[in-house]
Automatic annotation (TrEMBL):
The lineage of its organism: Bacteria, Pseudomonadati, Pseudomonadota, Alphaproteobacteria, Hyphomicrobiales. InterPro entries: K_chnl_dom (IPR013099), K_chnl_Slo-like (IPR047871), K_chnl_volt-dep_EAG/ELK/ERG (IPR003938). It is found in: Membrane. Residues 159-230 form the Potassium channel domain. This is Potassium channel family protein. GO terms for molecular function: voltage-gated potassium channel activity. It comes from Jiella avicenniae.
């Protein structure tokens, strides 16, 4: 018929490969097929390797390979950010999310390591962002170990704070002391968080005392959070179809947020 067009003509030809690429990335990042799960596991291993390099930064920064490693990590992170944006159904909305903005800031510190050297310690926050996005917990969910997710999140929060505080203290108070200074900063942070005493390492001046107070207060609260996650009754992962709340008591009949009737499977029946 005149004026009619075939469905294949609805999308310009040059957009079809791009659309196929987005669909493929979406299936890899968010799918549950065997290939997608393998891809997600490989991506998680790469993420954890990057975090390990961030922790080892004080050891690497005085070596000739530092810039090569730094820029290589920047390239991998840039590819990951770009691929996840393409896989998203709403890329511009995703770009405004705090975890994505944090990844972009980390990418900038990797691209400008000498200019932004004082902010390098913030890279460890990527561990926290991985926890918030849920990527770290996909293996637990796939194996039916959801009850361990809350304690594991508390451990990740504590570890992230330990290395974040260590990086800040090292940058501010021990910056010119190399690896020994970093170990002193880590020792001081652990001693502050556990309130076991400082021994022969203390921070001088008013800023040092204020830093000690802040580290102790946050550290104690994170330990309390960890204890609650371990000892309080476990919850099951079952998203409410009405409001989306995902954690409920094992015997819950109604959602405690919206009151919607739940039908939580009982493994014992």
């Amino acid at each position: 018929m005149p004026g009619s067009r075939r469905p294949s003509d609805a999308v310009p030809r040059y957009e079809r490969p791009f659309a196929r690429l987005r669909t493929t990335l979406r299936r890899l990042y968010h799918g549950d097929s065997r290939a997608a799960l393998r891809f997600q596991a490989a991506a998680l291993i790469v993420d954890l390797a990057i975090i390990a390099l961030f922790i080892a930064q004080p050891v690497l920064k005085n070596t000739e390979a530092f810039l090569y490693v730094d820029y290589s990590v920047a390239a991998v992170l840039a590819i990951d950010i770009g691929a996840r944006l393409l896989a998203s159904r709403r890329p511009w909305h995703r770009l405004k999310q705090p975890v994505v903005l944090l990844d972009l800031f980390i990418l900038i510190t990797l691209l400008l390591p000498e200019t932004l050297i004082n902010f390098g310690f913030l890279r460890i926050v990527r561990l926290w962002s991985l926890s918030k996005t849920g990527r770290l917990w996909q293996p637990l969910r796939h194996k039916g170990l959801d009850e361990w997710e809350l304690p594991a999140r508390a451990v990740v929060n504590l570890v992230t704070f330990l290395f974040l505080a260590t990086g800040f203290i090292y940058t501010t108070f021990f910056r010119n002391d190399g690896l020994e200074g970093y170990l002193d900063a880590l020792y001081f942070t652990v001693a502050s968080v556990t309130t076991t005493g400082y021994g022969d390492i203390t921070l001088d001046g008013s800023w040092g005392k204020l830093t000690s107070i802040v580290v102790m207060i946050i550290g104690i609260s994170l330990f309390v959070q960890l204890a609650q996650a371990i000892f309080k009754p476990s919850k099951v992962h079952f998203p409410c179809p009405q409001c989306g709340l995902s954690r409920h008591d094992p015997d819950a009949v109604h959602c405690k947020a919206c009151g919607h009737i739940l039908n939580i499977p009982n493994d014992e029946s």
